[in-house]
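Protein Record: Sequence and Backbone Structure Tokens
======================================================
Tokens: labelled as protein backbone structure tokens, with as many entries as the chain has residues.
Task: work out the structure tokens from the sequence, keeping to the layout shown below.
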Amino acid sequence: MEPEAQDVSRSDLVGRWHAGESCDSSLVLEKDGSARWKRWVTGYNGYRITGRESGKGTWTLEAFQGKQTFEVKNGHTFEPLMMLQGDGQLTLLQISGEDPDNSIGCRFKRVDGQKFN
């Protein structure tokens, strides 16, 4: 797995993202902090996706004691995503389901061509 990304800015995240393979989810992050998603994986059990949703909400990028966190918020639910860096690309990793050790990792890649420095 790629290392965690360092020094990510909000402008690195703004744009269109897609997680392929069985996830087949999309995420759009807007400059104003709004977000919308389609086919977002909300549950996973064993080898099977058990829930999906489409919707809208907000996103945040925060730093605390030198560590950055990225979250998508849907109502009162916060979904943290890991920010990974490799080959000049930023990847957003969503771990779905209640048990991270028994989950699928949805790997979101940019679909609008922007490179990560």
The helical segments are 10-13. The chain has a mean pLDDT of 87. The first strand starts at residue 15 and ends at 19.
